[in-house]
Specification:
Length: about 180
């Protein structure tokens, strides 16, 4: 009986090391959906998407929520601007926009930007976060999105994949 148990343990251990060699590598794909206009606070992403147009915005311009909501399909706020994006006066701005706001390269998700009593500095880290999106739909309901990098590795292919998924989300919201 001991030999059978021992043999089973050895076989199980040997099989545990076997893998299926399924690649989790992301295939680079371009967004080819509906035309999108995206306002960016910060440096525009270095992407060559024919159906996506980026325009630079300032925080002051963002405060005109009606204009931004009618002119753009989404707003991106880059990593270098997250600290300013966390200012309490912008909580109401994000909640009033009729288009989603995406916080690029955030490690804290969207919560510090849309809740008045939570600061970016004090917010908890979110595992596998790279971009978080937020859209207030009604007074008491909102939508949010989280996008991580494949295998948590930042490289051109994985970043491009995240943007492609964001563009698909924006197109869905736009419909």
């Amino acid at each position: 009986m001991k030999k059978l148990l021992f043999g089973s343990l050895i076989a199980a251990t040997a099989l545990a090391g076997c893998g299926s060699d399924i690649s989790t590598e992301v295939k680079a794909s371009s967004y080819d959906g509906t035309y999108l206009k995206i306002g960016v606070i910060g440096e525009q992403p270095d992407l060559q998407e024919k159906n996506v147009k980026f325009s630079t915005l300032s925080f002051e311009e963002l405060e005109d929520t009606n204009r931004i909501s009618s002119k753009f399909d989404a707003v991106f706020i880059t990593k270098d601007n997250l600290k300013q994006a966390d200012e309490e006066k912008y909580v109401k701005v994000y909640r009033k926009l009729d288009v989603p706001t995406f916080f690029l390269e955030t490690t804290k998700g969207f919560l510090p930007f849309v809740f008045e009593d939570l600061t970016y500095a004090k917010a908890s880290e979110v595992n596998d976060a790279y971009v978080s999106g937020y859209l207030q739909e009604k007074k008491d309901s909102y939508r949010y999105w989280g996008y991580g990098l494949n295998n948590n590795q930042k490289n051109d292919k994985n970043v491009k994949d995240v943007y492609s998924r964001i563009f698909e989300t924006i197109a869905e919201v736009k419909e």
